[in-house]
């Protein structure tokens, strides 16, 4: 009897959790495949980038497997007018998940949020 | 065996010597190299700002029309000898010292010298205290006062951190010239010679060994990698 009651409570809890928040909907990436499986990337991408950033900046090691520049190049979407949409805009690849997980990375206070664009000197 | 250089020379192309081959992926910078510039002020026009513009475009430095606080990695300084009236125009940027004052005073280790002598700011740990800006005798560093947008992917920069000339590490690591030297050679008189001061075969090392060169504020003993001629 008690077990059945507990099971019922648990099932109700599970149902409530499922409707608490919708899972983030991610825009599709440009590339073929990521550098690791989605499970690994979801959990470990902060450590990958943190490890790589010190090696690149302080030791000058280039061409690392994990690279924020490559992440952005692959995951930034294009608006209808052809402009790249920043990856940290609401609903975009980075922001949709970070908003869901309630974390605020500060990478993009400094790092570019769109792939490289050529700036014309004449326009300055 | 005809190599690429002979082919270029045979084709009559103007050879802007590539400083070195790109470093292999996964290999760190080594102390075998010491990158530097030799600047001939005789070829540097007082009104010419091609190197400054090229740097701003390369690094994505958009100003706010506030010259005192806007970021500048390279600037033109016009100097005049009061005794003779002789004037010179000198491009001044981070001098990438062997004994950098900014690294000495930095409380966090953000100001750092890479193995190949390039002095950088690690903005990941910079707290924006600006000690380095006070310590630097060359006024080479700027502070980002505003939130930044539209950065170049190869040069992250953000509010509350100090920044300065990186000698275009992102280009050097690919085996290309710094943007200022490239633009000066292409659009101006080629006053800037970039190369490896440690390589006896490089043009810059040979000229520095053969000709008289000056270093700004050599009396401070910081041993800059930037050398000037004609001042």
TrEMBL record, chain A:
A Pfam family of this chain: Paired_CXXCH_1
Domain Doubled CXXCH motif span(s) in chain numbering: 69-100
InterPro entries per record: Multihaem_cyt_sf (IPR036280), Paired_CXXCH_1 (IPR010177)
Transmembrane segments: none
Keywords assigned by UniProt, alphabetized: Signal
Signal peptide segment: 1-20
Descriptive protein name: Hdr-like menaquinol oxidoreductase cytochrome c subunit
Automatic annotation (TrEMBL), chain B:
GO molecular function, one term: metal ion binding
Entry keyword set: 4Fe-4S, Electron transport, Iron, Iron-sulfur, Metal-binding, Repeat, Signal, Transport
InterPro entries: 4Fe4S_Fe-S-bd, 4Fe4S_Fe_S_CS, DsrO-like, ET_IronSulfur_Cluster-Binding, TAT_signal
PROSITE patterns (UniProt xref): 4FE4S_FER_1, 4FE4S_FER_2, TAT
Endpoints of the signal sequence: 1-22
Domain of life: Bacteria
Membrane-crossing residue ranges in chain numbering: none
Domain 4Fe-4S ferredoxin-type positions: 117-146
A Pfam family: Fer4_11
Annotated PANTHER family: ANAEROBIC DIMETHYL SULFOXIDE REDUCTASE CHAIN B-RELATED (PTHR43177:SF5), PROTEIN NRFC (PTHR43177)
Protein name as it appears in the record: Fe-S-cluster-containing hydrogenase components 1
Protein species of origin: Paramagnetospirillum magneticum (strain ATCC 700264 / AMB-1)
């Amino acid at each position: 009897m008690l077990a059945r009651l507990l099971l019922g409570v648990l099932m109700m809890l599970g149902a409530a959790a499922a409707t608490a928040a919708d899972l983030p909907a991610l825009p599709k990436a440009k590339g073929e495949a990521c550098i690791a499986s989605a499970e690994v990337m979801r959990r470990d991408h902060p450590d990958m980038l943190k490890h790589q950033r010190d090696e690149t900046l302080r030791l000058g090691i280039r061409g690392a497997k994990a690279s924020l520049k490559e992440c952005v190049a692959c995951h930034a979407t294009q608006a209808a007018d052809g402009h790249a949409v920043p990856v940290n805009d609401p609903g975009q690849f980075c922001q949709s998940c970070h908003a869901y997980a309630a974390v605020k990375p500060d990478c993009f206070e400094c790092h570019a949020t769109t792939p490289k664009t050529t700036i014309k000197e004449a326009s300055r | 065996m005809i190599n690429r250089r002979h082919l270029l020379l045979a084709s009559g192309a103007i050879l802007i010597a590539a400083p070195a081959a790109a470093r292999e992926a996964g290999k760190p910078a080594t102390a075998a190299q010491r990158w530097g510039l030799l600047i001939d002020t005789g070829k540097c026009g007082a009104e010419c700002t091609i190197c400054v513009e090229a740097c701003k475009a390369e690094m994505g430095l958009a100003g706010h029309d506030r010259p005192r606080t806007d970021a500048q990695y390279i600037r033109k300084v016009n100097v005049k000898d009061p005794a003779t009236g002789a004037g010179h125009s000198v491009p001044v940027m981070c001098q990438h010292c062997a004994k950098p004052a900014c690294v000495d005073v930095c409380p966090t280790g953000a100001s750092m010298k890479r193995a190949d002598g390039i002095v950088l700011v690690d903005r990941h740990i910079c707290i924006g205290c600006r000690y380095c800006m006070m310590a630097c005798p060359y006024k080479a560093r700027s502070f980002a006062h505003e939130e930044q947008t539209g950065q170049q992917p190869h040069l992250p920069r953000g509010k509350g951190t100090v920044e300065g000339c990186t000698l275009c590490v992102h280009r050097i690591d690919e085996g290309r010239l710094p943007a200022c030297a490239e633009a000066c050679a292409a659009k101006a008189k080629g006053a800037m010679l970039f190369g490896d001061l440690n390589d006896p075969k490089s043009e810059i090392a040979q000229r520095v060994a053969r000709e008289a060169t000056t270093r700004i504020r050599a009396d401070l003993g910081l041993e800059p990698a930037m050398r000037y001629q004609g001042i």
